[in-house]
Task: structure prediction
Amino acid sequence: MTDSTATLIARLLAERWLPREDRAVRQMLVDAELREDIDRRLAAAGLRLLEHPYAAHVAVGIARQHEADVFGHGDAWAASNLQLSRDAMALLVVLWSLLVLPKRQRQIARQQTDLSQDQEQMFAELKPVPVGADVVEPINERTLLADFGVQLGGKGRIHMNLGTLQRQGFIARRRERIHEGPLLDLAFDYERIASRVMDGALAHVIAESRAGPGLDLEDTDEPDDTLHDAAMTDEAQADV
Result:
């Protein structure tokens, strides 16, 4: 008899991420007993399920209690287990801030709007949280270079790191636009990092991105010097 829980864990490890629409993933997310079994088995191996109601994918990461042993055994604390360089990690933080945080605000706002409308209807159906591309605004690569080129190592270094992040599944690149990849929303713990980003080094950039879906990032030509807090990338801990 096939062990469906073991199969799902094996698929997560082999494929690195699975969409929420996957039948086995959907079953796991709605079946409390199955979810508890998966969490227990992952914990036994020092792992945990990376899942967020607003994320379109699920993945597996290092359990919190084992992070020090996994990431702290070298001369310096490793930012991830993907051997990302310091500037690649800084770029990942910037992209997460520009893509995920504005998306999260739009998701919450849309859900609140739907909830208020449903309250006016006696038999309204519960609507799913929007997670598709319609709530994610892509970033123009030229704008990224103009805003962060100096801080992130220049054009050549940024393009090299964009390629690395694309291969790792954090982003997708199409026609000089940077789109959210399947792992980007799961890269950092939102509750741990979001407030530091929004109140710290990238606050001004995030405020501009929150202007709404109609914001044209190509209109931002002036270089942004808000990435002055090096501690931001030191604190950021990639979960995948």
Notes: The first strand starts at residue 17 and ends at 19. DSSP finds ten helices and six strands in the chain.
